[in-house]
Design goal:
The protein is mainly beta. It is 10% helix and 47% strand. It contains one helix and six strands, in the order ββββββα. Strands 1-2-3-4-5-6 form a six-stranded antiparallel sheet, with helices on one face. The protein is globular.
Length: 88
């Protein structure tokens, strides 16, 4: 918990389509929404406006966080590690 708000370590992947969880880092608020089976969108919330930053999905035995605009994909062994690399 960070000032009473959940952090990435406190949340689980949303299981149902359109389900969403919010978490905070020391710098920003984020939301993770289940887009479809095995696919999620990561939103950064700025001034109450969510903006999609990454698309998260499992590829074989690894997790990939792909940026929506430009940049490199982040590959990690688990979903929290993939997100931790893009939100810090």
């Amino acid at each position: 918990m960070l000032n009473g708000n959940p952090t990435l370590s406190d949340v689980d992947l949303p299981a149902s389509v359109d389900e969403q969880v919010a978490f905070w880092t020391s710098h920003s608020e984020y939301a993770l929404r289940n887009y479809r089976d095995d696919s999620w969108y990561l939103f950064r919330v700025e001034r109450s406006i969510p903006r999609v930053t990454h698309f998260l999905h499992a590829r074989g035995t690894e997790w990939v966080a792909a940026p929506v605009d430009a940049g490199r994909n982040v590959h990690a062994p688990d979903w929290r590690d993939a997100l931790r690399r893009v939100v810090t």
